[in-house]
Write a structure and sequence with these properties.
Layout: H1 2-18, E1 25-31, E2 46-54, E3 60-61, H2 68-77, E4 81-87, H3 95-100, H4 102-118, E5 123-127, H5 146-165, E6 171-176, E7 182-183, E8 186-187, H6 192-197, E9 200-203, H7 234-243, E10 251-256, E11 258-263, E12 307-309, H8 310-315, E13 319-321, E14 324-325, E15 330-334, E16 339-344, E17 349-352, H9 356-368, E18 373-377, H10 388-391, E19 416-417, E20 419-420, H11 425-428, E21 443-444, E22 473-475, E23 484-489, E24 492-497, E25 503-507, E26 510-514
Parallel strand pairs: 1-2, 1-18, 2-4, 4-5, 5-6, 6-9, 9-10, 10-18, 14-20
Antiparallel strand pairs: 2-3, 7-8, 11-12, 11-17, 13-14, 15-16, 15-21, 16-17, 19-26, 22-23, 23-24, 25-26
Length: 517
C-alpha cells in the first residue's frame, strides 16, 4: 500500500507539471447534493468538488464535508486530481461584494488556502457566474469593477498558493461562460492577463437554450444556426476566448450529460428538417429526478426545470439504445448544430440533449482546435459510461483517436445508429394528414427500416414517392459513399442527409451515418 501511495503521488506531481501524462484532460464536476453512484475515477484526470459557497465574511461552506477526506484518498489512489470548486449558479451571489471589502477579501484568500491544505487538495476552481453580469437574480454584480477586481484577486490567490505549497504546485482553474468576462461595455477584449495566472478554463458551453428562449433550440450546439437565436455555440465560445487572448491549449470544452424538455406549440414532425418551433413559457416535467422548485431569488411559483439526464433518457427508456428512440418518441438529427433531438407527437414535447454521436463531433472539433481536453457536468448523469467513453477518444495535438462505444461502429469514428423502435405504426395515428415539406433539409434522422420501399434505380427510395409506414428510414443507395437517405412521413418519402463528410449505411434493419467507404 505504501508503494502504491508513493507511485500515485509521483503521478500526481507529473500531472501538475506536464498535464495528465500525455492524456487529454477529462474534468468531472462532482455535485455534493446528490448520492453519487459508483464511479471509475481513473477515467477522469481531475474531479472538481461542487460547490464550496463563500459567505459574506469570506469563509467557505461545503455540504457533505465529512465525506471529502475519503473521496480525496480514493481519487489520489486512482491517480486523479482533487479540486475544490467555489461558487456555482446559486453560490456566486457574494463574489462581487467580497472582493470589494479589504477584510472579507483577505479572509477569503486565507480560507481557500487553508481549505486546500486541510483536505489535501490539488487545486482550486473558481466558478463565478458571472463577473460583471447578472447570473442568478439574487447575485450582486458590478459591471464597472468586477472583472478588474477578479483579476487582482486571482493574482493574489496565485501568489498565496505558490508561497504556501511551492510554485505552480497547485492548480488554479476557472469555469467560464461562452463569452469573456464583462466590463462596462460588455465582454472584455483582452483576457491574456488572466491566462497567465490560471492553468486552464472550463468552458460552460451548455445551457445555451432552454425554456427561457422563445423557441425550441439546442442546449449545446457545436455551431449555431444562422438566423436562429441565441447565437452561441461551442465554436463561438472557443473563438471568443481565443480571440481575447486565451490560449486554446489552456481550455477544456464543457460537455453536458443532460438536456432539456420544452413543449412546442405544434407537431414538429410535420417539418422534421426544422428544429425550431414556438414553445410554451412553462417547462414540462423532465426526468424522474426533476421536481417542482421555487427560486427564492425570483419569487415566482414552483416550476419544473425540464431537465433530462442522459442516464434517465436511457433507464426510463425514451432511448432503448444511444441512438434508438422508443415510440412514440422520434429521434431527429440537426446537421447544422450537430445535435440530436427527440419529439413526442402525442404531447408535442421536444427534448434537446447530447449523445455519443454529438459528443464525438465535439471531441474531434476541440482536438482540432488544440484544446487541452473536456469538462463534464456532471459525473453522476452518465449511463454505463456511454458518454464518458467517448471523451477518452480525445487526442491532443490536433489529432483524434477512435473509441468504440455502443453507439459507434467498429469501422467509423463518428458513426451512430439512431432509430425508432420497430413498431412505427403508432406514429401514423399521431401525425396530421398534411404533407411534410420535401425540400432539402438540414437535419437527419436514422431509424430501423421494416417497411417496403419505393426504390430508385440506385437502390433506394424516391423523394415524394409513396411509403407505407411512418417513421421508417432507408439509405438513398448502397454505395457507402452517399450521404442522402429518406424518412417516411405522411405517406411519402422525405429526403434527408447525414452530416457533412459522412455517408449512409444500411445493415439489416439499421441505418447509420459514418465515414464514407
Amino acid at each position: 500500500m505504501q508503494l502504491r501511495t508513493l507511485v500515485a503521488a509521483i503521478c500526481l506531481t507529473f500531472r501538475l507539471a506536464v498535464g495528465a501524462l500525455g492524456r487529454a484532460n477529462v474534468v468531472g464536476y462532482y455535485p455534493n447534493w446528490i448520492a453519487m453512484p459508483t464511479l471509475d475515477f481513473t477515467k477522469y484526470t481531475h474531479v472538481n468538488f461542487a460547490f464550496a459557497i463563500p459567505t459574506a465574511s469570506g469563509s467557505l461552506s461545503y455540504d457533505n464535508q465529512a465525506a471529502m477526506p475519503g473521496i480525496v484518498t480514493n481519487l489520489h489512489a486512482a491517480g486523479t486530481l482533487a479540486i475544490i470548486s467555489i461558487g456555482g449558479w446559486t453560490g456566486s451571489g457574494l463574489f462581487s461584494s467580497i472582493l470589494k471589502s479589504t477584510t472579507s477579501r483577505a479572509a477569503f484568500l486565507g480560507n481557500i488556502v487553508t481549505y486546500v491544505k486541510t483536505y489535501n487538495l490539488d487545486g482550486v476552481d473558481i466558478d463565478w457566474e458571472y463577473p460583471g453580469r447578472q447570473g442568478d437574480t439574487c447575485n450582486v454584480y458590478d459591471a464597472n469593477t468586477d472583472t478588474s477586481n477578479f483579476l487582482a484577486f486571482l493574482q493574489d490567490l496565485r501568489t498565496q498558493l505558490d508561497t504556501t505549497f511551492g510554485s505552480r504546485s497547485k492548480l488554479l482553474t476557472l469555469a467560464v461562460r461562452v463569452e469573456p468576462f464583462d466590463g462596462p461595455s460588455g465582454p472584455v477584449s483582452d483576457v491574456s492577463a488572466f491566462a497567465k495566472i490560471a492553468d486552464y478554463i472550463n468552458l460552460m458551453t451548455y445551457d445555451i437554450a432552454g425554456v427561457w428562449n422563445p423557441t425550441t433550440s439546442p442546449n449545446a450546439p457545436l455551431q449555431f444556426a444562422p438566423g436562429q437565436r441565441p447565437q452561441f455555440s461551442v465554436g463561438s465560445a472557443i473563438d471568443a476566448w481565443s480571440g481575447a487572448g486565451w490560449p486554446t491549449g489552456k481550455m477544456n470544452l464543457g460537455i453536458p450529460f443532460y438536456g432539456y424538455a420544452m413543449t412546442a406549440t405544434q407537431n414538429m414532425l410535420q417539418n422534421p428538417s426544422n428544429m425550431y418551433a414556438p414553445i410554451s413559457a412553462t417547462a414540462p416535467q423532465g426526468d424522474k429526478d426533476d421536481t417542482l422548485y421555487a427560486d427564492p431569488c425570483s419569487g415566482g411559483p414552483a416550476v419544473y426545470s425540464g431537465a433530462w439526464q442522459w442516464k434517465h433518457l436511457r433507464d426510463q427508456a425514451l432511448l432503448t439504445a444511444p441512438g434508438t428512440a422508443a415510440l412514440p418518441w422520434v429521434r431527429t438529427w440537426d446537421s447544422v448544430t450537430s445535435t440530436p433531438w427527440l419529439f413526442n407527437p402525442n404531447t408535442n414535447t421536444f427534448i434537446t440533449y447530447d449523445d455519443p454521436q454529438s459528443i464525438q463531433l465535439k471531441v474531434n472539433y476541440a482536438a482540432s482546435k488544440g484544446l487541452a481536453g473536456t469538462m463534464v457536468w456532471s459525473m453522476d448523469m452518465d449511463y454505463n459510461g456511454e458518454l464518458l467513453s467517448v471523451l477518452q477518444s480525445f487526442s491532443s495535438g490536433n489529432t483524434t483517436t477512435t473509441s468504440t462505444t455502443s453507439a459507434t461502429s467498429s469501422s467509423s469514428a463518428t458513426s451512430s445508429t439512431a432509430s425508432a423502435t420497430s413498431n412505427t405504426s403508432a406514429i401514423s395515428s399521431t401525425l396530421s394528414t398534411s404533407q411534410a415539406s420535401s425540400s432539402a433539409p438540414t437535419s437527419s434522422t436514422l431509424a430501423s427500416t421494416s417497411s417496403s420501399t419505393t426504390s430508385s434505380s440506385a437502390g433506394g427510395p424516391v423523394s415524394g414517392a409513396a411509403c407505407s409506414m411512418a417513421g421508417t428510414y432507408q439509405c438513398a443507395d448502397t454505395t457507402g459513399k452517399n450521404a442522402n437517405y429518406y424518412l417516411c412521413l405522411y405517406g411519402k418519402w422525405i429526403s434527408q442527409s447525414c452530416g457533412s463528410g459522412t455517408a449512409c449505411f444500411q445493415s439489416g434493419s439499421s441505418v447509420t451515418c459514418g465515414w464514407p467507404v
